[in-house]
Amino acid sequence: MGLPAPIARAAGRATSRLLRLAGRNASQLPGRVALALDSQLLASLAPGLAEGAVVVCGTNGKTTTTNVIARACQEAGFSVDCNWRGANMLAGITSAMLYDKGADWAVMEADELSCVHVLPQLKPRWLVLLNLFRDQLDRAGEIDHVQDCLVEALAASPGTGLIVCGDDPLSVGVARRAHAAGTEVLAFGIDEELPPPPDRVPEARFCQVCGAELGYEWRAYAQLGAFACPACDFARPPLAWRAKAIDVSPKGVSFEVRDGEDRPLAEVSAGFGGTYMVYNLLGAFAAASLMGVSPEAFNRALAGYDPKNGRLQHYRLRGREIVLNLAKNPTGFNQNISLMLADERPKAAFFVINDDYNDGKDISWIWDVDFERLAGEAEAGRLRVVAGGHRANDVQVRMKYAGMRAPIALTVAEALAALEGAGSSGAPAGSDAAELEPLYVLCNYSALWPAKAELDREAEAL
Amino acid sequence: MTARSLSICHLFPEALNLYGDGGNILTLAKRLEWRGIEARIEEVPLTETPSFAATDIVFIGGGSDREQRIVCERLLERKAELEAYVRDGGVLLAVCGGYQLLGHSYAMGEETLEGLGLVDLSTSRGTPRLIGNILIESELVGRVVGYENHGGRTHLGSGVEPLGRVLFGHGNDGESGAEGCVSGNVLGTYIHGPLLPKNPAVADWVLARALERRYGSAELEPLDDAEELAANAVMAERLLRGEEKE
Please, are residues A360 and B19 in contact by the beta-carbon 8 Å criterion? Predict the structure, then answer.
């Protein structure tokens, strides 16, 4: 350890002021500066929280779930420190803790591999584990390694309880090992049979304990569902929060939350998302209720939820509705494809894939995305696709082998030009000619920010 | 000419699917379809016993360590059939973990496990993992570009030709400059995932070998590969310009 914590903290805050004066993003560097002076700074800031901390991790849905929990806490009258924008490694989390004298709660999303650094310092009351999907194999390694890191993180923070998605065999695998080592575990999940999903089980086909192929009563998407091993006792755990009466439509999701004894707790609805959002919101509800947030405050937070963070953000540009969303791995992309197919209008899509360090340099995963589900729409003239990002050529080849021709564009404006220049206005015959086909802009992590900046600058927010 | 068709055996896709390996099967199928040749894809699950009697192309992909061990045990039970298939000139494409299984032995943690012994090579363990974009120059198929991610160090026997020489990246062992292997109609490589889509010459080599064995002629109608070759060239140029190694 270097200098005393107050000096490290002051240095971080000064860095933040300078960055803000210069109009720069201050979500990472202040924490890096402060941590360079005191690597354990988060540990000295954590006791300043009046109530404690909650950390959210999981491959997909971290930012939205974290934002919903933090908003709900504010709605309930708590003051909150939060890494709202998703800077989710130790530096980003430390940055988000530098300013307040001591908030009531810290609500932080943490990168799965960063948990092992974050948890021992922050010592959160709860860790929410949403899901584990294959993502960034080059950086994170195989999922087994991610699981080991989470088990180690929980072991290093004995006071932290685990709120886990009980429908995900991979997350439950972590919970089972953590529970054996003394961690308190509570599970949430969907408690009714859903219509069969169109995707395949991409991973976790095998029992986490004995290696037999898992069986499913029903499946929600990817490997999430009511699973059980035919050969041993590995199965979906009892659920402390259950989602029932689920309705998923292009308009959003709604469901009823019931407790472990099947008693109704709340009705929850949100004007965004697909099946995956039921899990995010149920996980958020579970955490919020343990933090003392009432169902009413939770729903008020959802009603006013508009984080403008590039997740399912709507714009209007050159006569078109534009839907911007993050899609950074096969499961995320497949869920976005489901959302697009639920939109009955003819549409266009701009798939933007970068391979920066934060994205993972290996983009092999685009061949695991079920783009073939879109081919029928494309063949019927109801879908056009454009390829973008540093790896636009790879996206173009992927489209070709899925049966679609995709021109390459560098920006959203270029994508629109490609669509406009293709001869058709995009307006389907017999429909209102003024309404052009909506454009779905689906970007992986580092591609999201330039697209969002361009749309924030050029387009009307909806 | 009567209608032609090839049978492609995708071994254990539920376990060996780590890096978009399905893209390789898709590419073989499409490039046959575009030439009016029927592609029959046979996905062999772990619970089934593969027979290679009517097979033209066998594909073995990569899996996580745990899954690869299960797969190798299953394949060792079929070692004699696979040997006979390869001896008969059967085409076998093996990527990443599948490539390691081709040799006499491979290392898993501290253990040395028996391989299929189809090619004179063996794989030891090394640190660090060899991860990153890779570009090789191959006499057989030109410039091949892709991604590698392996802890294994594969050493070729004296009579085995590498697929190519490394221009950027690590290759078989990070030292020799050799990448992959070609032995008869068996091709192994660490270049994983979408090996074939962006390297259509590799895909067509596989198809030509299989057509020759089945129909006596390796002739393939040329396709418009402008998009595939552009994707290959963009990455090759980027790597040769001196992209930072991981």
Answer: no
For tokens 């390829």, the residue is A387
What is the Cα–Cα distance from A287 to A269, expressed in whole angstroms? 17
Domains located in chain B, CATH noted: 5-240 (3.40.50.880)
SS3 content of chain B, % helix, strand, coil (to 5): 30, 30, 40
Residue B40 half-sphere exposure toward CB, CA atoms < 13 A: 7
Per-residue pLDDT band for A144 (boundaries 50, 70, 90) equals confident
Instruction: Give the C-alpha separation, A55 to A52, whole Å.
Output: 10
Residue of A nearest to B31 (CA): A401
Q: Is A196 exposed, middle or buried (0-12, 13-18, 19+ CB in 10 A)?
A: exposed
Q: Is the pLDDT of residue A424 over 80?
A: no
Output phi, psi for B98, to 5 deg. Answer: -60, -35
DSSP letter at A370? -
Output helix, strand, coil percentages for chain A, rounded to the nearest 5: 40, 20, 40
pLDDT band for A139, please (50, 70, 90 cuts).
low
The beta-carbon neighbor of A367 closest among B15, B194, B234 is: B194
CB-nearest partner of A401 from B30, B235, B246: B30
A170 and A132 Cβ atoms separated by less than 8 Å: yes
Decide: A130 and A174 in contact? Cβ < 8 Å: no
Mean confidence (pLDDT) of chain A:
91
Phi, psi values for residue B163, rounded to 5°:
-65, -40
Is B192 one of the catalytic residues? yes
Q: What is the largest CA-CA distance in chain A?
A: 71
Residues of chain B with Cβ-Cβ distance to A393 below 8 Å are 227, 230-231, 234-235
Strand pairing category for B164-168 and B178-179: antiparallel
Interface check A142 vs B, CB under 8 A: yes
Residue type, position A191, single letter: D
Closest Cβ–Cβ partner in A213, A362, A401 for B26: A401
Instruction: Quote the CA–CA distance of B238 and A355 in Å, as a whole number.
Output: 12
In terms of phi and psi (left: phi > 0; alpha: psi -120 to 50; beta: otherwise), the region of B142 is left
d(Cα A289, Cα A312) in Å, to the nearest integer? 26
Q: Which mean pLDDT values do the consecutive 10-residue runs of chain B (246 residues) have?
A: 88 79 94 97 86 94 79 88 95 95 90 93 94 96 96 95 97 97 97 92 98 95 98 96 75
Question: What tens digit of pLDDT does each residue of A378-412 get?
Answer: 999 999 999 999 999 999 999 999 999 999 999 99
Q: Is A361 on the interface with B (CB under 8 A)?
A: yes
CA distance B32 to chain A (A): 12
Residue of B nearest to A406 (CA): B227
Where would I find the H helices in A265-319?
Answer: 275-290, 295-303
Q: CA of B119: how far to CAs of B16, B154, B161, in Å?
A: 20, 12, 11
Active-site residue flag, B96: yes
Which single residue is written with the structure tokens 């999303």?
Answer: A109
pTM over 0.90, yes/no: no
CB atoms within 10 A of CB A21: 9
Backbone angles phi, psi at A239, to 5 degrees: -100, 130
Report the complex ipTM: 0.96
- Strands A161-165, A105-109: pairing kind: unpaired
Give the residue-averaged pLDDT of A359-371.
93
